Structure formats: C-alpha cells, structure tokens
Amino acid sequence: MRLTREQAAAKVMVALDKPDAETALRLADALHGTGCWMKVGMELFYAAGPSVVRELKARGFKVFLDLKMHDIPNTVRGGARSITRLGVDMFNVHAAGGSAMMGAAMQGVEDALGEGDADEKPIVIAVTQLTSTSLAVLNEEIGIAGTVEQAVVNYAKLAASAGLRGVVASPLEVEAIKLACGPEFLTVTPGIRPRGSDIGDQSRITTPGDAVRGGTDYLVIGRPITGAPDPAVSLQSILEEMSAS
C-alpha cells in the first residue's frame, strides 16, 4: 500500500545537527507544518541544552532526543527520568550497555510518570550498531565476531527483552530485526540518502524509497535536507519518493 504524503512525513525525522539553537530553530521553522519529526542529537543538545527541545515542542514538532545513553544502570535511570520530564516523544540508550541498563531506563520513565512530572510516556529505543560501522570495524576494532546483521539482531532481541519498543539500525537490517522481534517492534533507520547524494561518513545506506519498501518505521535524514539550499523543497522531493514506493 502506498503512503500518503502525510503518512510519509510522519516517518521522517530531520536530524538537526546544528551548532546552536538559533540555526536549528530557523531550519525547523522552514519545515513547520510538514508533519515531520525533529531529531536532536549530541551536537545541538550539548550546545543549547533542554531549552531547544522545549522550543521545538512549543512549535508543534515531535522530538526524538538522540543522546545514546550508555552508563551504569542507576545513572541511566536518572537520565531517563530527566528526559521523560522534558517531554520528548522518543529517546534512546545504547544496547551495548546491557539488559540491566536498558531496564533501568524504562524504570526511569516510570519514575517520572509516577511522580507526576510527565504527561506522556516516551518511546524508548536502543542503538544497535552505528551506520558508520563496517564489518572490518565490527570484527577488528570493536571485537565482535560475526556479521554486522548478527550483531544488530542480537542487540535488538536484548532490547526487546528489556521492554524497549524498538532500535536504531541501518535500513539493511530491518527485515532481520522484524523477523526476530516481531512486526510491531520499531525500527529507526539513519543512513538514508536520496539517489545521487553524497554518502558522507555512512557505510550501510539506502534510498528513502528502498527504506520504505524494506518496512522501516522511521527514516532519519540529515544533510540531504538540512544542507540543501531549500530544505522544504528537498523534504518534499523525499516525501514524493517515499509516497511512490
């Protein structure tokens, strides 16, 4: 079934990898009313702090806070509690932290809700392997044997068992993740590049149309939109490609 433009937009997370709030919010304003999400990562959050998330929420955007928490369980529990209070719609931890750490993140969410400090329960997902990770890096530098897909699926299953609702993975692993964890288990996929665009520092990539056909739930897209002369036009082109899939 083909996506409507609205359905396609609801799958797109625009990566606001900008060095300051003013630049990021100016870009967000250029995309206001499109129906897409905003992804706030480390560069922007470390520069602008929680206020930029509040500004985006005030503008009506759904926000994915991409900080990849990876620490001892008690620290992650406290971090998750604070993030939930902030009102984000989605945030992530790193699956490499293990099941106890991921479970602590879920407890932190429940702490904030139980204390009455948050109105909505955010979606919590886990990072598996970065889309810049090649097989050589996985085996020779990180020290994990097997294929990238095997490592990703193992992390996805661990996240599912800890009660998380999905994972970040490349589009190339979506089918295997869905087979291992079920069709309702969410996949958030960076490494999306429209045909003809620069792949940058990504290793495992695909096009927006192929990602939709592969069954992913959310597409994280940064530079092809944020680096374009007219971000709204670039987004529209991507939505048309997704809708035609």
Lay out the secondary structure.
Blueprint: H1 5-9, E1 12-15, H2 21-30, E2 37-40, H3 42-48, H4 50-58, E3 63-69, H5 73-86, E4 90-94, H6 99-114, E5 123-127, H7 135-142, H8 148-161, E6 166-168, H9 174-181, E7 186-189, H10 208-213, E8 218-221, H11 223-226, H12 231-243
Parallel strand pairs: 1-2, 1-8, 2-3, 3-4, 4-5, 5-6, 6-7, 7-8
Helix pairs in contact: 5-6, 8-9
Structure commentary:
The chain is an alpha/beta fold. It has twelve helices and eight strands. Strands 1-2-3-4-5-6-7-8 form an eight-stranded parallel barrel, surrounded by six helices. Helix 10 links the parallel strand 7 and strand 8. Helix 5 packs parallel to helix 6 and helix 8 runs parallel beside helix 9. The relative contact order is 0.15. The model has no long low-confidence stretch (mean pLDDT 94).
